[in-house]
Structures are given as structure tokens and as C-alpha cells.
Amino acid sequence: MPESTYTQLVELSAALLLLCAVLIVWRRSLGAQIRLLAVQGWALAGLVAVLGVHEDSVELVSVAVLVAVLKGVVLPRVLSRTTAADRAAAREETPLINTTASLLAVSFLTMLAYLVSRPVLVLGSTPAVAAVPVGVAMTLLGFLVLSTRRHAVSQLIGFLLLDNGIATVAFLTAGGVPLVVELGVSLDVLLVVLILQVLTSRIRTEFGDADLDDMTELHD
Amino acid sequence: MADGMRRYAGVAAATVVLVAGLALDVAVAGGGTVTALGGELRADALSAFMLTVVGAVGLTATWSGMGARSDPPPSTSYAALVVLFLGAMSLGVLADNLGVLWVAVEATTIATAFLVGHHRSRRALEAAWKYVVLGSVGVAIAFFGIVLLYAATRSAGAATLSWATLSSTQPDLDPSLVRLAAALTILGFATKAGLAPMHSWLPDAHSQAPAPVSGLMSGVLLSVAFYAILRVQAIAAPVIGTGMMRGMLATAGLLSLGVATLLLIAQRDLKRMLAYSSVEHMGVLALAAAVGGTLAIAAALLHVLGHGLAKASAFVASGWILETEGTTRLEDLRLLFRRRPGVAVPFLVAMTALLGLPPFSLFFSEVAIVVAGVQRGMTWVMAGAVLLLLGAFAALARQVASIAFGAADGDPGPPPDWSAPGRRFPLGVALGVTAVAAFVAGPFADLLTDAAGVLGAAAG
Lengths: 220, 460
Fold this sequence. Notes:
The complex is a heterodimer.
Chain A: H1 3-26, H2 30-54, H3 58-84, H4 99-116, H5 127-130, H6 132-148, H7 152-174, H8 179-207
Helix pairs in contact in A: 1-2, 1-6, 2-3, 2-7, 3-7, 3-8, 4-6, 6-7, 7-8
Chain B: H1 2-27, E1 34-36, E2 41-43, H2 45-65, H3 76-94, H4 98-116, H5 122-155, H6 163-169, H7 175-193, H8 201-208, H9 211-240, H10 243-265, H11 270-291, H12 294-325, H13 336-339, H14 341-354, H15 361-375, H16 379-404, H17 425-437, H18 443-459
Antiparallel strand pairs in B: 1-2
């Protein structure tokens, strides 16, 4: 692959990743957020595939397939199943901050991401390293979603956004982690999401809906 | 038959871990290492010691829980999850690869999530949700740090996450990247270790989980997360010095002691009281890690063992109290010592250990950590720590005293009940070990200094 094509493809997938993250913060509909998360999963898989082809690494290309299956198909499907139960209320109704404020926070956090990524830039001036702030921004936006949304599934989406961000940084800086770790991490993420899905349905049975604001019994 | 398997699965797993830990302790005595699976699994003196702790605390919690009638009801998933938990923790301390250590720590979140939510009440559900979300996000931060560490080794020429390689070759890593990596990794594992200000999941999870599970989480999970901090610290120290990490750990330590003291004073629930006592003891461990050096780390490891055994015993006994009294509200448990000495005596002995009174080893390890801190010039930090420890002691002692003593209301009531709904023998052994551990000179002291030396070798 010519160097210029490689640069463009890396930049394209990074832009797509960030765009999906911003749109997830913007949208209130859980269905739309889940679809965006799936698109982001495919974008991440594309990024890994591009890196794999560029480095002639069969291992990375196979990891790209794993990422596509897990983050592009399986996890979004698990999330959709969770929201299928309450079609009517599949919206984030009571976020702690409104949409305008969240989008302001997005721009602030993205700038912050470029600031805190500076130590990473010592790794060289390659297109991959230049895109690292995108991964950091996704991680920070994941935190934003986790801390401002009160619907159980929204928090799940925030967690996965955070995880995608960390995975993006891992692939951009180090070509991913060793395969045994990658497999373990993927399995862990899948199981955590499945557990949270089960807990979500139990919460819905117990409290009537999946709004976490009702869970205030434990305190000192 | 199947019922027997369910009953004995946890005990059998813990016994295997304990025996393996003791065997490794002997095998690696004097600074050797044992490796398996092409170096993926590696036991040095530190891993062997931690494996022994996992086994010993695991055995205390599982064995004494046998014979319990209702809490928890024996079920296949419960037994399987306890075995999975012990397996993941053993993998964590034996893994050579920091990434695998991370995977194992995260796997315990998965194993314990349903254990925390085992009672299926609203409160248990809330605790389980908070625990999984906060725990996963916390360790995700640690994973971010590990990724950056891996990137640093890659740009230094040899991509590796192997602890053995990193600590023996000490590659020329970029300091600014390692600083960020170490900060994130320590922050992440500190969440899992229940250090303030990331401790908020801990009292909820510990108070809602079945008692033996609370004991396992407090004695094993927190300790293994602390062990992960020690490993990362040893790798980062030669590159960036100890200054930043010392600052982080000392702050977290003092903050944990402060938070624990404040919330112990007004605590009204027995199990939450034990949970905040865990926050307090993790604060002591964080201070020991901040001090560093053979004396402080050896004392910290002794503290890990003493706290694990005593806290597991206290939680198991609190489960018996819940079962016989039907409540864990402290105000309903006044004079329990007179009414039900059968469950109150094990509880009070465990609390004496946790209060840090001699002859229990926690007294000696706390003194040693403070002495080591003063030797290393952290006098003011240690002065603050001692004040907060005294505060926590007073708060905890007041709560415990209301169970042990208190004014009798004149009515003699029914005769004292000496029965217990579980097995007291394992608690006796665990607390006995805690009581004599500090006095067993010779091989045990060598074991601790060997284990501390593993980290010292890396720190240079």
C-alpha cells in the first residue's frame, strides 16, 4: 500500500471513530446510539486492518476480524436485545446535562485529549501516532456518557465507548497488545456487557424501568 | 452427591491453591523462580507468598461457610463462581505478563458480579450494578496505562509486557510516557483495591454480598489489586524515580484512612463497618507502598496476610450474626456477647485483630510500616497516618464495645447460646495464624524479605 493511501486511510478511520463518538453524545435515542456504536466498531476494525496490511502482519489482520465480529456485530446485538424489552422508553430521558452542554463538553474534552496526549507523541511522527488523541478523546467522551447518563443501557454504551477509545490507542501506539492479552480483554469485555445486560433486565423487573436514579438505597 | 460437590468445590479449590502456594514458597526460597507454560506463568517469592495468601484466605472463607443453613443456599452457580474467582486470582499472581494479570483482575469482576447480586434484592442489585460499572471502568483505566507501557517498550526496541523481561533487562523507556502509564495503571488498580477516593463501590458490594464472598473480596481481591500496584511500581521506579508514585500512593493512603475514620464513627451497619475497615487497611498498605524498601514492603505483605485472614473471619462471623439475629444493624446487636457468645466470640476476636491490637500481626506490621516511613524521611505523612489510625481505632473500638459490653437492662433473659451456624474451627486456625505470624522468626521472616526483595531488585 502506498504511503499516502495509508496516511489517508488512517486519518479517515480516525475521523470516523471520533465522529461516531460525538454523535453518540449528541443522540438521545438508544437505538441510534447503538447503531453508531456498531459503525464505530467497524471503523475500528477497518483501522486495525489498515495497520495490519501496512505492517504486513497476519496477526493484526486476524485481530481486525475479531474486532469487527465483536464490536461491530456481537456487542451491538446484545445491546439491542437489552433495549428491545422497552421499545417505548428506549430513550435517554433524564441526562444530568442537556444536549448543548454535552456538546460544549465534547469540544472541551477533545481539546483536553490533544493536550494530555503530548507524552505519546514522542513515539514518532507517523500518521498512526498523530491519530492517538482521537483515541484519548473517545475515552474521555466515554467517561462523559458514563457520568451524565442515567439509563442503564446508556451507561453500557458509555463503557463500550471508553473501551473502544482505549483499544484505538492500543492499536495506534503499539499495533495492539500481545494476542493472548487481546483475546483475554475481548472475552472480559464481552462477559462484562453480558453481565450488565442481565443486571439491566433484573433492574427493569425490580424497579419497573431501567432508570438508575431509582437506585438510591445504599448510602451512609 | 452433586450437593456434596457443590459444598466442597470451593474448599477443594482453596486447598489446592494453598498447597500449591506453600510448595512454591519452599521451591523459590532463597530467590529462585519457577516457570511454566513457556514462561507465561512465573512464580518468584512474591507470587508464591501471594498465592499462599489467596489459598489461606480462600480456605478460611469457604470452609467456615460450610454448614451454613441459608446464607448462601448451596447452588451450582455459586460454587462455580467461587472456584472461578479463586482460579482468576491465582492466575493473576502467577502471570508473568502484566496484560494477563489485568485480564485476571478483570475476570474477578465477572466472577463476583453475580455473587454480589446473589440475594437478588433491590439493594443487592444496586450494589452489583455499581460494582461492575465502577470496577470495569477502574480497571479499564489500568489497561490504558498498560497499553502505554507496552507502547513505550515497543519504541524502545523490544515490545514486551513480561514482568521478568522488563525487570531484568530494564530497557531504555521514555520517561514521560512511563510516567503517564504508571499514573494510569496505579489509579486503575487503586480503584479495584478500594483506595479512596475511588472506594465508593466497596462498602456497597461488601455489605450486600453473601458473607463468605465479602471475606474473599476483602481478603483476596483487594490484596491482589494491591499486588498489581507493587509490580507496576517496581517496573516504573527505575525509569521515573519514586517521587510521583510515592506522592500518589501517600495521598491515596492518607485519604483512605481519613474517609474510613469519618465513616466508621457514624456507621450503623455491621458489614459496612467491616468494609470501611478494609478501606482503612488498604490505606495502610498504600502508605507502605509509598514508603518502599525491604522493611516497609515485607511489613505490607505481613499486613496483607494478617488483614486477609482476620477480615475473612470477621465477615464469616458477621454472616452468622445476620443468620442468627436476622439483622446487621449495630444498634440491634447490643450485648450480643451475652446473648450469643457462640457467634460473638469469633467475631470479637477477629475484630481485636483488625483493631491492630497485639499479639495479632497487624499491630506489628503497622508499627513496622510507620517506622520504615520515618526512617525514609516521611515523618509528617507518618504522623498524620498515626493520628488517623488512632481515630479509626477509637471509632471501631466504640462500635465493637457496644456489641461486647453495654449496660444490661436488668432482665437476665434466656441463657447464653453457644452454638454457631457454621464451622468455627477454620476461623480459630486463621486467627491463630494471625496471632503467631509476627512471632514466628526464621523461615517466615526470610519468606517476607525474599518476597520484598523481588521488588527491590527491580527498583535498583
